[in-house]
Fold this sequence. Notes:
The protein is mostly helical. The protein has three helices and no strands.
Amino acid sequence: MNEDEPTGGFPQGDRATxxxxxxxxxxxxxxxxxxxxxxxxxxxxxxxxxxxxxDLIARLEDEQPKPDDPTEA
Length: 73
């Protein structure tokens, strides 16, 4: 051990990232999980909308009354 290390054995600069938060995970672990989740959800968002969903949306939009249609008022 040298003068830069506290009695707990962690170097001064690393101590904050190694301490656990309220949820039991340290900052580095939380960041790693966050990065993986972002990558996963980004790949889902980039996928094309299935044809059956596009057809459903189109049918629902066609069924909605138009504000300028006097028969629907």
